[in-house]
Each structure stands twice: as structure tokens, then as C-alpha cells.
């Protein structure tokens, strides 16, 4: 299993669990058994597959909602952890959408570009060197989420830790963003098309997975 297929493997497992995912567990197992890239984390990843295989679909779905939808610290939306509700989050969304479109990748109407499974799916469809570059940009945030999941003893931590290990860049700690007052943001920027989030204006020119000053260490080091 090469890097592109590995990204797809993780993307599927990080999505809301449905019956077809559980039915495909033998295929996920075979891919894990054959992957040299995942060998170092095979034990923990096997534990995650066992978790999926040993619980009812309803239990898996309830746990997924509890983990990711009801706990902001675990959100799989990359920009949630670095921009919070700051207006630069909208700029980053626009830039990431442009990144997707530059390689012919289109999201559904109800999908946000910073959703980690969508980002990993995108990595699976672009040249490996470019995917590695983008992963190196995003790894600080992914590692931040992984640490939060580990602190909550979530089985999903194994997935994110293994994704971090694929990065050519060593993750650095994030400074968590302040929570912006939502009423103030709505008054300043107005609602988006859904009427539930502030309409944010693009103001930066390149994809930014973290804003200036969000890393405690200014310069990230490449893995040896």
C-alpha cells in the first residue's frame, strides 16, 4: 500500500461509521497487514480495527458523535483548532478550496475543505511529493488533535498518531486560539449562507494551516 492508498485508508476510517465501513473491515485488515508504511504503528492500528469489529454499529456511531461532534477539542476540522472563530478562518477556507480546485478536486455542497477526512482523500489523489508537503504544513494541527484524543483515551487517537508519523516534518505544539464572541462576529460580518456562522472574508493569498504565532516554536524541523 503506497502513500496515496494509505491516505485513503485513513480518510475512510475517520468518517462517520456506516454499515458499509464495517462490511469492508476485512479489506481494511488486509491493507494493514500488507502495508510497510504502517508497520511501526500496526499494533495500535490493529487495536482500532478490533474496536470497530467488536462493537455494534449503533455504539460506534454514538461514540463517534460523542467524540467529534460534542467535544470541540476533538473536532476534525483543521482550522477550528488554529483560527477558532477568527475571520482569518474564512480566508484559509477559501485558499484551501482553491488548492483543491487547482488539482480538479471538488467537494460536495455540505462538505468543508478543512475536514480532515476530506483533506486526506485529497492527498490520495495528488502527486505524493505535493501531498507530503501539505501534510507537513498540517501536521502540527493533526498532532494537536491526536494529543487531545489520547488524553481522552479515544481509540481514534491511534489513527491520528499514525498519520503524524507519515509527515516529513516534526510537529510543534500549537497555541490554542481564543474563542471569538459569536454574536460579535455575526454582527460584524453577517451570517453565511446557512445563517449559522459569520460570513468571513478572504484576506490571505496562500493556504495556511496555522496562523502566524500559533506555533510555540517558530521554525519546524524536518524529521531525520
Automatic annotation (TrEMBL):
This is Nitrate reductase molybdenum cofactor assembly chaperone NarJ. The keyword rRNA-binding does not apply. It comes from Kingella negevensis. Keywords: Nitrate assimilation. It comes from the Bacteria. GO terms for molecular function: metallochaperone activity; unfolded protein binding. The keyword Protein biosynthesis does not apply. It holds the Pfam family Nitrate_red_del. GO terms for biological process: chaperone-mediated protein complex assembly; nitrate assimilation. SUPFAM superfamilies: TorD-like.
Amino acid at each position: 500500500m503506497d502513500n496515496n492508498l494509505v491516505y485513503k485508508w485513513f480518510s475512510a476510517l475517520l468518517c462517520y461509521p456506516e454499515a458499509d465501513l464495517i462490511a469492508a473491515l476485512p479489506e481494511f485488515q488486509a491493507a494493514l497487514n500488507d502495508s510497510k508504511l504502517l508497520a511501526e504503528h500496526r499494533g495500535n492500528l490493529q487495536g482500532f480495527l478490533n474496536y470497530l469489529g467488536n462493537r455494534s454499529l449503533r455504539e460506534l456511531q454514538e461514540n463517534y458523535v460523542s467524540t467529534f461532534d460534542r467535544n470541540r477539542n476533538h473536532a476534525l476540522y483543521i482550522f477550528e483548532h488554529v483560527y477558532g472563530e477568527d475571520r482569518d478562518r474564512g480566508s484559509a477556507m477559501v485558499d484551501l478550496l482553491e488548492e483543491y480546485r487547482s488539482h480538479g478536486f471538488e467537494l460536495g455542497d455540505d462538505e468543508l475543505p478543512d475536514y480532515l477526512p476530506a483533506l486526506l482523500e485529497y492527498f490520495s489523489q495528488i502527486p505524493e511529493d505535493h501531498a507530503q508537503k501539505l501534510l507537513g504544513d498540517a501536521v502540527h494541527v493533526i498532532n494537536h488533535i491526536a494529543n487531545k484524543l489520547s488524553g481522552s483515551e479515544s481509540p481514534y487517537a491511534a489513527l491520528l498518531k499514525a498519520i503524524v508519523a507519515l509527515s516529513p516534518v516534526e510537529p510543534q505544539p500549537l497555541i490554542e486560539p481564543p474563542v471569538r464572541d459569536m454574536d460579535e462576529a455575526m454582527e460584524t460580518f453577517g451570517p453565511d449562507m446557512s445563517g449559522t456562522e459569520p460570513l468571513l472574508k478572504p484576506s490571505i493569498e496562500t493556504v495556511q494551516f496555522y496562523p502566524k504565532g500559533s506555533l510555540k516554536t517558530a521554525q519546524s524541523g524536518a524529521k531525520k
